[in-house]
Amino acid sequence: MNIALIAHDKKKEDLIKFAQAYEYCLVNHQLFATGTTGKRISENTKLKITRFQSGPLGGDQQIGSMIAENKMDMIIFFRDPLTAQPHEPDVTALLRLCDVYAIPLATNMGTAELLIRGLERGDLKWREYIQHD
Q: How far apart are CA 87 and CA 64, in angstroms?
């Protein structure tokens, strides 16, 4: 599966801890991330990650493009709901695309853990049957 990992600045440490805890599962998938988040996860794990621009510089839109092209299966996006984001319209567009294309989306640790556990059990196998170009 193609999985995107994204985190706002105040949530990057949480996503790094999540990636470390579930590295054994994530290593079996194609991982994508926005710039700084991907760099930080790569520095703290052995995961291979395709990095895009940082979110404010278009990384959210690049991941959104993959969703629209049916090339993304899951998004783990640790959002900071208490801090205004300068690129909030991009974030909103990304979340909207997840809804439009029925992409599983976790915006916090609890939901991310449920998605990963479902991935481990094979509950998300239906996504594998969707063609990737």
A: 14
